[in-house]
Design the sequence.
């Protein structure tokens, strides 16, 4: 891996509970030439975060904030790493990702409770936490002003794309503070 590269990861084979292969893909996100290009490739939720399972250069890993404890904290962490240099995607399937019913979360608030069991049933604002962390990552990045402005434009696009999710966080919090959330019993898929 050249000195300018930050991380390396392989293609992924997805397997079911019993080991049956049902998917194979190669992710190339995070490999763009510019920091803003890598940020744009990684920040949106339309892809897997496979680079997190790769090999990360130690000096870069020690120079960024640790992965934060919220839904999509891994995605923001990858962006922090990508500001230091491109990732290398190896077209060889060496990573086996097991999927089963207990590791799929469709509701972000349920996922927040997985990250922090004390948050179960409480207002957590997962989308807002992600947005604030994204902004912080760009402000702390070792990039030029021009690159920072390009990343800012991507954040605006992110905010518009996920505005319904941001609004949903506020509505869920209002419902829980208004008493409606206290009477609802939730079953989480790890129980």
Sequence:
């Amino acid at each position: 891996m050249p000195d300018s590269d930050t991380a390396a990861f392989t293609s992924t084979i997805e397997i079911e509970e019993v080991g049956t292969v049902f998917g194979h893909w190669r992710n190339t996100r995070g490999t763009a030439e510019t920091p803003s290009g890598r940020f744009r490739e990684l920040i949106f939720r339309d892809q897997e975060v496979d680079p997190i399972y790769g090999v990360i250069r130690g000096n870069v890993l020690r120079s960024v904030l640790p992965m934060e404890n919220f839904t999509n904290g891994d995605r923001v962490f990858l962006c922090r790493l990508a500001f230091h240099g491109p990732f290398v995607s190896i077209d060889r399937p060496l990573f086996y990702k097991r999927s089963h019913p207990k590791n799929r979360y469709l509701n972000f608030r349920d996922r927040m409770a997985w990250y922090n069991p004390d948050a179960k049933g409480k207002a957590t604002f997962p989308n807002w936490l992600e947005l604030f962390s994204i902004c912080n990552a760009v402000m702390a990045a070792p990039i030029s002003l021009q690159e920072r402005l390009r990343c800012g434009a991507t954040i605006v696009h992110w905010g518009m794309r996920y505005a319904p999710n941001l609004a949903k966080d506020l509505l869920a919090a209002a419902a829980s503070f208004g008493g409606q959330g206290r009477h609802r019993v939730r079953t989480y898929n790890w129980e």
User: Anything to note?
Assistant: The chain has a mean pLDDT of 86.
